[in-house]
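Hello,

Our lab assistant flagged a job as stuck in the queue for most of the afternoon. It eventually completed. Since we weren't sure the result was trustworthy after the delay, we are filing this so someone can double-check. Below is the sequence as submitted and the structure that was eventually returned. Let us know if re-running is recommended.
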Amino acid sequence: MKTLVYSTKDFEVPYLEKANQETHTLHFTPERLTTDTAMLAVGYDAISIFSADDASPNVLEKLKDFGVSYITLRSAGYDNVNVQKAQKLNIQVANAPDYSPNAIAEHAIALLLAINRKIVVAHTQVQQYDFTLSNLIGMDLKGKTIGVIGTGRIGAVVVKILHGFGSTIVATDIVQNENLAQDFGVTYLSVQELCTQSDVIILSVPLNAETHHLIDTEILGYMKSSAYIINIARGAVVDTKAILESLNTNALQGYATDVYAHESGVFFYDRSSDQPKDPLLDTLLQHPNVILTPHQAFATQEALTNIAATTIENLTDWEQGKVSKNELT
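-- returned structure --
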């Protein structure tokens, strides 16, 4: 199947080529899928896109006109694809849902440990030969209450890791995982109750109409002033301005995130010589109580191997007239 791979990063290509084994004709472009770049897909049967690509209704209509019938995502999240419009246009869409929950969950813990134990601050200090500890006081995670919002594939792994720290784990989700409750002592609460009790809150929910700005001014008002928020979900799950306001008024201790609501066209690119004009991003980067990583949680060898394998599997199923097990339409 002739496939154009949008938003290709140099580190992805070897994994995709190894998984493909020349089964399909893959062409790579670093360009993001937008209304302006959709025309690059002329003559292709399928495209592969990433989380920063735009598969909104207008773009999907263009793709259909250009002859594209299949879209395979190299991500689990698909909030950037209008699935209903794709169905109407008879464009088949599949994602990569199981590539490595461990990669994302482990990055959440890395962010938690980094912000709690002041790792970034410590590194900066010692580079200046300042070996004092006054700015580096953290807390034990043992005995602390940690709230996990979203206990799907990733959230479940987060719970299992936290259990090893001896933390008390509370959670909220539209579907309660009884195995987590039984095996790891997870107590399911409402969002408000979870925020009231938790010393740390970890976000691992998909972005949709219900979770957009789930963490807003009202919800932040329920949280302890000593609490940390860790975001490995999507940037728009939080109201970033409200987060910063809480940090600035000492109503929140810290925010560590791998995602940002306006990351499209910024994350995954070297913008050092062409810095984006985004005051909100500037504020996040400069805030002493914020850690921001560039959507790197998925970037492990195992995850990239699995993403590539799933991408090729989806294409092969379609070429053979099968329904992909990862189908979204």
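-- support follow-up --
The delay was a queue issue, not a problem with the job. The result is valid. The longest helix spans residues 301-319. The radius of gyration is 21 Å.
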